[in-house]
Amino acid sequence: MMQVNYTKDAFITLTSLINFIEANNTIGAGLRWLNRYEAFLQKSLFKPAQIKLCPNFTFNTLQLRCIYFNEWVIAFSVHSGYILIEALLHKSRISD
After folding, report:
1. In a domain, 96, yes or no
2. Which of 12, 50, 67, 79 has the greatest number of beta carbons closer than 10 A?
3. Cα(18)–Cα(30) distance, rounded to whole angstroms?
4. CA 30 vs CA 24, 34, 47, 87, 94: distances in Å
5. Does some domain include residue 95?
6. Nearest-angstrom CA–CA distance, 88 and 10
7. pTM for this structure?
């Protein structure tokens, strides 16, 4: 799998989500969620260039590709040698 990088906004969203999960669940819940998320990325981003562009108009215009992890939309771009996760949004926040 290629290296995964995050934009500042996507990374802030990810850390805020992990902190929220940790604060509202049992100790270690945030870390367990992060482990499942990372395993999902490793499995799903094996051949990132084959993933279709996002159906959302704005993301599609920006040539972003989307995968879905539970209730979360992960919008990313593929670059030479790395994947850039540009947005991590709850699916209720966007429309196709």
Report:
1. no
2. 67
3. 5
4. 9, 6, 27, 19, 24
5. no
6. 6
7. 0.91
